[in-house]
Structure of Putative kinase:
Amino acid sequence: MPHPQLHLFCGTIGSGKSTLAHRIAAEQRALLLSEDKWLANLYGPQMTSLADYAAFAPRLKAALFEHLVALLKAGNTLVLDFPMNTRQSRAWAQQLIAAANTGHQLHCLDVPEAICLERLLARNRRGEHPFAPSAEQFAAVCRYFEPPGSDEGFVLCHHPWANSGQGAHKASS
């Protein structure tokens, strides 16, 4: 039986979570699930504010929970492109890890907010993402960001920012 892994991501909007998630999924031939794509398909026109996200994201997580556990228990490595940016979101991930009894890595992307905002605005101009938060929404979301604490028990994989855009990474627990 393969040893499944659950890959999770923490970093502000525009830090590169989705890019890294796609890379890991391709490298490990893992299943990639994107919260943004699910939310866009299920609630797209209804998602106009941060309050809408706060209402719909927990519904999605609740709906997917047992399915994700089953996928992990069946031996699948999963890459969850869901932002694990608050203790509350990471508590959900801890429940998932415990229910599936699986290994995991929480990938933490440490990119300066100014760079993230530049990336977000460029992405918005290209129209390549289902949601296009404004600079004001970006600032509001950043206020909720909570870096993971050592008391949360995650296996952390840090990806510090580098000017080349190719952040190195190191694992810790």
The longest helix spans residues 50-73. The chain has a mean pLDDT of 88. DSSP finds six helices and six strands in the chain. The chain has one domain: 5-172.
